[in-house]
Amino acid sequence: MKMKAEIIAVGTELLLGQIANGNARYLSEKLAELGIDVYWHATVGDNAVRLTEALKTALARVDLVVLCGGLGPTMDDLTKETVADVLGLPLEADQEWENHLQQFFSSLGRYMTENNRKQALVPRGAKILLNEHGTAPGLWLEHGQQLLVLLPGPPRELEPMFTQEVAPRLAEYAGSEPIISRVLRVAGLGESTMEDVIADIVTTQTNPTIAPLAHYTEVHLRLTAKSGSREEAEKMLDGLEERIRERLGTAIFGRDEESLAEAVAKILLGKKLTLAVAESCTGGLLSTMLTSVPGSSAYFLQGLVTYSNRAKMDLLGIKPALLREHGAVSAEVAKAMAENVRRRAASDLSLAISGVAGPDGGTEEKPVGLVYIALATPQKLDCRKLTFLGTRESIRERAAVTALNLLRLYLVS
Amino acid sequence: MKMKAEIIAVGTELLLGQIANGNARYLSEKLAELGIDVYWHATVGDNAVRLTEALKTALARVDLVVLCGGLGPTMDDLTKETVADVLGLPLEADQEWENHLQQFFSSLGRYMTENNRKQALVPRGAKILLNEHGTAPGLWLEHGQQLLVLLPGPPRELEPMFTQEVAPRLAEYAGSEPIISRVLRVAGLGESTMEDVIADIVTTQTNPTIAPLAHYTEVHLRLTAKSGSREEAEKMLDGLEERIRERLGTAIFGRDEESLAEAVAKILLGKKLTLAVAESCTGGLLSTMLTSVPGSSAYFLQGLVTYSNRAKMDLLGIKPALLREHGAVSAEVAKAMAENVRRRAASDLSLAISGVAGPDGGTEEKPVGLVYIALATPQKLDCRKLTFLGTRESIRERAAVTALNLLRLYLVS
Fold this sequence. Notes:
The structure is a homodimer of 413-residue chains. Chain A has 413 residues and is α/β, with parallel strands linked by helices.
């Protein structure tokens, strides 16, 4: 029989509207993938009385209660204490976790404050869920026929903890018909364009299902299959993936968590090619993406953030005349940047970006969002003129991602 | 006396995690501005039984219930019907709104379907709240000592309806005190350490209140004051801010939305100082942060991503002997990187980062997370040895943020 779940988010900042309840969204999606029905979301502040009421209400109507937030070291963090109180369980120090914390703080050359010691206290019978990104552990607590899972509030801590520590245990605990999903990641195609290409598949598919989701600079296609066995479900996904790849081809750059930078890295490593980068408006973002991949030193030789014209001249030897004649934001300068950084770094390939990120500095002729991206290879020197909409931040991000994707398409073509 | 409120969001898409509950965030923020305390958020699917339970629970504990979603013309829209049912009120056609709808549809050259006629039905005694962006009206329903407000789900309908139709009525109805809050942003102190320093203030403060919130590389202190007038509330916040600043001093880098990079930018611009950067393990992230601020070309001269030893030698003139003797991850090399990039860029200041971001490449002597950050100024050349925990991504981010903060502390000291 299917498990019913309630998600209780704890945090006054939610009730003050300072942040949206992204954890409830994330957890709901993940629980659905595990075949668990989420019937309720509740949010309370950092208040023991109301948390107690919410917890009692939840325990009266669902099998699984997931609490997020209120596990930190500070005085307003009450979740663990309230859960122990409602269930009538004593709090006991988890020696293993206390030692872990001791090491953590001494490794930082800090001493462990009392309120941090509090983090090693757990309700009797609770199992620790490791937190690789913070000091507050999560808790797995089976109580009679019910299950309580306590998770930290910060998404950076909650999300990896859920996928690594909670999801596998839950799948086993719930023993529900496995629902397996797989994400195909698409770059360089808009959501609507992509849907056009695969509309007939999307509409006729029932199991596995296909859910396209625009993810800012990418589109993700989530394929979800339900079946008696994981193997069976995987086979179903393989078949559907193959059909979709026939339509989208190289627009699909990766699967599941694979980032565009990782996809590019894999190809560069495979072909033993090296890369150098010169950036103006993106200010280092393209280099950051390229070096986000472990082992990137094997292919990434150097990156130059030539934000000023002075730097373009000094570091890249761009001719003042070229800058005067065409301006820093031009195909000519972008090409020269790519050509020169490739020669100076003695790399196989190079990318250069020059554009107007805004919000200021736009003109009639060169509006905010105008970006030139140049790619230099042993065979050729290409430049693309693009216009991106959005904030300074999104223009910079779209430009860097587009450059990465141009490189990828060159490498796979 | 202050009104207590609960927000009930209705919609299965929320429980499936397809969208986050942005309406609860928006409404909570607006209600707080009106001096209304939001004590609860609840979310239920399009299900009459559970919506009934949620509504009864809310009516048992708050003065104001705001429901959003489920007002549309389709069969799964049950909010209005459920409210009428729970309160024992008949649904009656609102002639005015029915005429309005007639006109609306004929203006579109469409005829009004039966399920649209359903939208003109309202619980007896309810007042229509105009919807300029859709066909579903909102409802204002005073029931004994309690108030229910029903709003449509789509934010583009809900938000203008709230500001134009609801807020003015509520201000009058509640006649309550405004709540104003302010965020102090702290860098370089852990949440627990910081709370130690201001524990006595945090515990003794009731109005204004203080809520510490860990934000990954920062800690935010939210001060919230309630008072008869905005001016008075602001004064209360000023007083408390002053007390906290006496304790935390320069650890506080900004207020509200100000980012660390913006804080640094402001000081650099004010002092007319220029900066150059050399990065190894952070791979361009520090440059990215520094150039994320509009107008950063005024102080940011150049950034060198010298990821390989080759690049450290070519671009920064680091002596091979120095790299051999101490290794790239060392105080000596970090200092040389800072010194050389400052000289070559002819900048006033420079930052250099060299470390082991991992997950590979760590050794007993130089473990993953070990980072050297050097700061070169006209007066001195400093280097800090730090150890960060976490993923490659978080080690890189913590290193870049720490470098920014070291620069800031130098500038304000």
